Amino acid sequence: MTTSRRQFIGGALGMGALSAFPMPAIAQSGNVIKIGLITSLQGGYAAFGQNHKRGAEFAVEEINAAGGINGKKLELVVRDDGLKPDVGIAAARELAGEGVRIFTGGLVSGVVLALNGIMGELDSVFISAAAHGNNLTHEDFRPNYFRVTDYSAMRVAAGSGLVAQKYKTAKVWGSIAPDAEIGRSVMDVVNYHLPRVYKAQNTIDIKMTETLWTKFGATDYRNEIARLMSQGIDGLVVGLGGADETTFLQQAGQLGLTKKIQGFFTSGSEFLGAIALKERTPENYWSGFHWYYGAYPDNPISQKVVEAFRAKGYGKHPDGFVGMTHAAMTAIAGGLRKGAGPTAKEMIPALEGLTFDSVKGKITLRKEDHQAISDVNYALLGPAKNEDGWQVLDFARVDGAQFAGPPTPGKALSFT
Amino acid sequence: MSLYLYGLYNGLVLGLAIFLVSSGLTLAFGIMKIFNFAHGAFFMVGAYTAYAITGQEASSLFVFLGAAFIAALLIGSIGVLADLAVFRRLAGVPPEYTLMAAFGILLLSNGVSKIVFGQAVHTVYPPAVLGDFIDLGMPVSVYGLFIIAAGILVFATLEIGLNRLWFGKLVLAVARDPWMANVAGLQVQRLKLVSVVVSFALAGLAGGLLVANQALSLDLGHSYLLYAFCAVIVGGLGSVRGAFFASILFGLAESLNAVVLPGLPGIATYSLLIVLVLVRPQGLFPELSQ
User: Fold this and answer.
1) Strand partners, A378
2) Is the CB of residue B109 less than 8 Å away from at least one CB of chain A?
3) Is the per-residue pLDDT at A3 higher than 70?
4) Which of A40, A80, A214, A247 to mutate to test the interface with B (most CBs of B within 10 A)?
5) What CATH number should be reported for the domain holding residue B207?
6) Cα–Cα distance for residue pair A184/A138, rounded to 1 Å
7) Neighbours of B8 (CB within 10 A)
8) ipTM
9) List of domains in chain A
10) Residue A66 has pLDDT above 80, yes or no
11) Cβ-count burial of B62 within 10 angstroms (0-12 exposed, 13-18 middle, 19+ buried)?
12) Pairing relation of β-strands A212-214 and A207-208?
């Protein structure tokens, strides 16, 4: 095959044109440390993933504006996991191929579990900023994994204490949760703690009805709502999240369930339900938070993140996903400042036992199982005649250390 | 009313909701002989369009229905573009190419929706006249009854339109043997275009009518599309009647699953799919053109 003069000139012009466009340079250079953020940027959890990205960006901007770390700037490289473990793994491998060794993000436990499985092989660390599953720091613990936020055991145990304090006469409790690891984690903790805490605090024996398990992405919870209404429950634990939780709350409100019960709490969709429901937000709705900014009016780091969020025009209410990637980046910076390089061999000892200031005060990454020992936040959301259509009526900031349980890496939490 | 009866009622609501989505899908298959992967995305865009018109709660039934029809018109118009720009150009190539093109349209629709509508989750409520529920020992929502009525109305319209009206018979003739229809002097391309437009418009209409049934997010299309595909396959590819009965079967299976086996969500739907495909691989109502 011969190349004609016309083909050669055309090819040369094409190459020239291409070279005029800046190509993304991913590879690690001497003065930059790349951090891979793998989160979910599409689907029902996209709003959380977007805030994951924003929180990490704020932290990188702050750290770089202060001169970087040991003379090196941080650079964030963002990838979407599409809520799918295989997509997350592909993203991590791609970034690792470009030299990235430190990862953060991780919205759902299933994806994080898969990512943890390859971190050792990639000589990398993953610092997750949301995934809640009990298993991640217990039976499925991997040494290359750290979690900067509270987890189901802490969150739900704290929530159980909270509702026992607020709804002293609620004797029958129902529950609904997704048939997935996170749902099972939440319900293990609820079934263990709620009866005990009611007995201890209010000296009453409560009845827990059988948990209703649902599919992810369900569009109809009316049968479950009818069953809950027929059980005569006084309180409800909602283990659903994202758009599923919103659909459930919408239908529960329409069918009158939310008005029939004294109160309910959810493990962690933060403001999402209230933002969607607006003036239809129920009045007895305790929502779990990775970080509720209103609970930290005197924390300068928290205030700075709130100001940055508002200044960028992202809205008035940064959620815990913003706060937790900010915390993850702060932890990473803390590890690097201790002189660690970005490899797993150097980062793991630097992060183990690290205590750092964050949007929710001091966080310690427990040495044994790499679990964050931190506050647990809840907010009571309700309807309002304001611009948002909802408001925070009350909040709780609970010391999570008492609920963290003993570290048992490699061994499941015991609820007997 | 017992939980079982309530489960039956909810199963009908879900079944007719699935049919509202699957009707356009099966129609598209009947004409184009492809699974239109983009159908779920256009259903979602239809729902967002209705939400943009009504806000969180439609002021009246007229506004609610009007928004659904505008959504149908908009998505139908997109159908014209899709047919002229993509499907018609791929008419002579193997169906795998059209399948990939539909997948491309799905990705494009999702991307554009993300830019236009944002990623927030919304809730939409039916107008006051449909927003109440009847207390029969269990809360029977009026909106659920409306979905059942809407599904039956769409089914009746398509059945009569396709099997009794001259125009429907022309469409069926093109679907079953486009070459012979062409030889007989029918304007095959025009009839195909109309069918594609109706198929797309049905996706938009379903979005507008079902927008108040669950939270509105960019995931909405996925929630129904899997059921709709199951209904189209089990009903008989391209058969509106088959999709109707299969949708109801899947709705009932899913709903009664929640009542009878609350610890094993979804198992009845997939079991039913496997059994029906094994027992009747040609579908409940095999379409003559297949």
Assistant:
1) A288, A396
2) no
3) no
4) A247
5) 1.10.3470
6) 14
7) 17
8) 0.89
9) 32-150+297-373 (3.40.50.2300), 153-289+376-403 (3.40.50.2300)
10) yes
11) exposed
12) unpaired
